[in-house]
Amino acid sequence: MAQLWGGRFVGETDKMAYEFNASIGFDKRLFEEDIEGSAAHVAMLAKQGILTGEERDAILRGLGEIRDEVRAGLLEIDDTCEDIHSFVEMQLIGRIGDTGKKLHTGRSRNDQVALDMRLYTRKRVVGTDGLLKELLSVILKTMEENLETYMPGFTHLQKAQPTTLAHHYGAYFEMFKRDRQRMADTFRRMNYCPLGAGALAGTTYPLDREHTASLLAFAGPTLNSMDSVSDRDYLIEFLAALSTVMMHLSRFCEEIIIWNSNEYQFVEIDDAYSTGSSIMPQKKNPDIAELVRGKTGRVYGALMALLTTMKGIPLAYNKDMQEDKELAFDAMDTADNCLALFTGMLRTMKFRKERMAASAMNGFTNATDAADYLVGKGVPFRDAHGIVGRLVLYCVEKNTSIEKLSLEELQTVSEHFGQDLYEAVSLKTCVEKRLTLGAPGPDAMKTVMAAHRAYLEEEGFAGDTADGQTE
């Protein structure tokens, strides 16, 4: 059992206790960040005269060798070390001797792991932002191709008013755009360097924390050493943002599952994102959409677990905080995988446009427009509402729709109906006359889509704010 803290102890750690305490099984994915942070720390120590140039170069060379060998699969990170920090440091000492023991000068595992997790999470925030941007591109392309694809809009899962597929997809564009904004907000708040905080009270060594922060592309150093080693707000924020992403994906998946059903038949999901049944040969199941919907709870669980872990921890670092990693890693992987698969499913999905339009016509989605027509004839809206309600009841009894009634039938309900009603309640008219910004009318939609296109074509968060941190 390789560990860095044995000097105080004379007895061996119980094997089960050691394994329970160890984190190497999951924090080994932080090895790149551990080496990156160590390299910056060593460069700063040499700048401050705490290490010589020769010591710096030897340590940096050794760290580079370890990184390259792990990347190439020539060096395995095994469980003989307690954590990734122990593994890297012991490998370094084994390669360059006592000089390697100076790596930890002016540093604690508390600020070291705080740095590693922050560096790792920062990269994942940027990666998720990139996936969101790709999804937005697919959504916008579909919007641009379906400006006149008519479909029913719903409230309470009941057909309400006619809209377009472009307008419907536009609602999700707004949701995922807000998700990108949350990524950027999370990044900005977390982008401060905890290295140099020590165990909780800084260090007596003359460290240049601003220099270390600059080397690691942070906006600056954190300003309280106790908070530096005990803060996991940034991770909670990221998990909350991922939970919101998953909620939006789940809502979209729920609609796609409904649209894919035999009753709706609005869409056909590509074979690449569907599965069959082991007993029913006719089945084509929307399993990817269902799994994305199901995995939402998994991401929620990670957020709730971390909130619960952190709620009773006094300052500063406590071992409880080791629980910030496993479920968080799983949530990050889950959300990114769901985004990638959902985007692929959306990109390849086909629409049954005639079926969608027929559904809009058969659900009295033009009833509000019939009422507005009467208002235009001088009928007070409340009276118009009642007239159209009776008209819909008549249609239900006759198993027909408003636009299929004869003029004589219309006028038995109200003398204000004229031949021009048919044009007024057509899907095309119902949609096109809705011209307010944010509505489904083509002119309003073109204005919005132009703004969306400009938004996606400008340098986004992942391209500029991160400033190469995905390397």
Could you characterize what this model shows?
By secondary structure, the protein is mainly alpha-helical. Helix content is 61%, strand content 4%. The chain is built from 20 helices and four strands. Strand 1 (150-155) and strand 2 (158-164) form a beta hairpin. Helix 6 packs antiparallel against helix 7, helix 6 packs antiparallel against helix 19 and helix 10 (233-260) runs antiparallel to helix 11 (287-310).
Strand order of the largest sheet: 1-2
Order of H and E elements: HHHHHHEEHHHHEHHEHHHHHHHH
Strand content: under 5%
Distance between the termini: 33 Å
What key phrases describe this protein's structure?
61% helix, 471 residues, two-stranded antiparallel sheet, mainly alpha
